[in-house]
Write the structure tokens for this entry.
Amino acid sequence: MELKNLAFLSEQSEETGAVGAIAYSHPGERFHGSLIQDFDLLVLIVLNTDQSTLTVEHYRYGDLRYQLIYASWSELQITAVTGEHYNLMQCLIEGEIIWETDDQITQLREELSSFGKELREQKLFHEFTSFLRMYVEARRHMQQGHVVDAYYDALKALGNWARIVLIEQGMYPDHAVWTHIQQLDRALWKLYQELTVSSETLEQRVELVLLACEFSVMSKMGECSELLLRVIRSRKEPWSIHELVHHPQLRFVREDLPLVLRKLVLRSIVKESAGWPSLEGEGREIRYWIEA
């Protein structure tokens, strides 16, 4: 069956605010896991809205069983940076564009393929903020004696570290991160093995990884945070944390931004001033700036 003949892929969907449709079919016996989920076809309808609209519907058209996913344009852009909803990204990159109202979907696909400077910088900052959160959580769990939980956090921090390495190599990190790291960074691969298969005690293995994280990745804090630093430098007036977490260029790291900002202050990369009256009338609001 020709995909373009299916009614749900016609440009009449524009009436619902859609800007395009992408179909990802099941070629032969190839296994697609959670992406296809035993359906013959996955159809991604992209909506022109900034609201969260991710919904899933299941249909049957004759003998064809398909999964229909509605996602907003904003969700696709954020997913390209965060790596969440990898199934959507796989559909976007490998699926067939059935129709689009303009070239938005094509341009986003080309941006992912070329992994240009803007996307690379956004993804680098996102991975670093995630790494920092996992590192801090692992340290906290170790202090509380929760070694197994610290191990889990350390393993996730290593995954963020691995993706940072790939991004620095100009590669968009997909789901096969460690396969690439085996060839590109033998030291990091060895550290991964030290954590997962070493004969040392679990506590010793976690401490080794956290020590390596502290000295190897933390030294890149300024480089990895360049996106945030450029936003802060973009005006003379200091920024409140409220302004920064709602800045459109930083929306994909909103939850982890306060943690990163405080670390940058502790390392004197960012300065703080507490000279602004609080909106509640008590205390003085802290604002952030960078020396020229």
